[in-house]
Amino acid sequence: GSGSGRPRMETQSEFFFCSGAATEVLKVGSSQLSGEEVLLLLIPGNPGVVGFYESFLLTLHGMLGRPVWAVSHAGHCAPPDSMDLVEGRSGSNGAAAARRDVFGLDGQIQHKLAFIRDRVPRGTRLVLVGHSIGCYMILEMMRRSPELEVLKAVLLFPTIERMAQSPQGKVMTPVLCQLRYLAYLPLFLLSLLPQLNSMYLGGQEMRMVQERDNVTIQKNLDRLIFYYGATDHWCPVSYFQDMRRDFPHGDIRLCERGVRHAFVLDAGQDVAQMVAAWIGGSLTA
């Protein structure tokens, strides 16, 4: 426990451009990797602000002793004053970021793959931890880059299907889809307001996260752990039951603790302790 007198771990925050967009990485444990070790990498929900996950990351590192990093979504951070949200906002790089739609759902997935390619040494074995839309991104990352060395992927409160049909989606879809005009906003407006980027991504989630990717799930089933909330308005329990029916051999769990979808707000440490217990065995191999 925390009474063991170990020095209090600190998080380190780094800002840089990835896919032409401002990105923050929060690191606990080694900030430099040799390429030999296991890295736990968190892909957040929306808003993809890594600061929310601090106690979760610290607890995970404290229990497993491995480096734990969290990468923000493109443009979901408040970079230092010297740094715009888009690289060379007035120049060609900003235009390139707009063309790639880096703030959209597909762009965010490409952004995570670019981050791993650019910032994680080759040969690093990964444990991916996703929250909410981060789970959808992880399945897509595994589909698009099967060469990634993923030991395990833990999908927490996974919004991987039928988002617009979920109870929360029914409330949010009309709001977010009225924001379609965000797609036509000049890039400099998006690049000034991280909150706009979050809403823009949300609108795309409602339109694009429809059918569950059963092929990718089946292909990677032995590496995946799903954790559904008992009262999650983005993933009703019926989605959990459908998963259990469709993947009887999968590791698919239903929360018994009443943890809410936005678990980092009050249960970050509890969930981290559970995750550590689930994956501890696969790290020693």
UniProtKB/TrEMBL annotation:
Q: Which domain of life is it from?
A: Eukaryota
Query: Which EC numbers does the record give?
Result: 3.1.1.13
Task: Give the keywords, sorted.
Answer: Hydrolase, Lipid droplet
User: Where primarily located?
Assistant: other
**Segments forming a coiled coil:** none
**GO BP of this protein:** lipid storage
GO cellular component terms given for this protein = lipid droplet
Q: Name the InterPro entries for this protein.
A: AB_hydrolase_fold, LDAH
| Pfam families documented for this protein | LIDHydrolase (PF10230)
Q: Which reaction does it catalyse?
A: a cholesterol ester + H2O = cholesterol + a fatty acid + H(+)
What's a single GO MF annotation on this record?
Answer: sterol ester esterase activity
Enzyme superclass (EC): hydrolase
| Subcellular compartments | Lipid droplet
Report the family membership: Belongs to the AB hydrolase superfamily. LDAH family.
Name this polypeptide is given: Lipid droplet-associated hydrolase
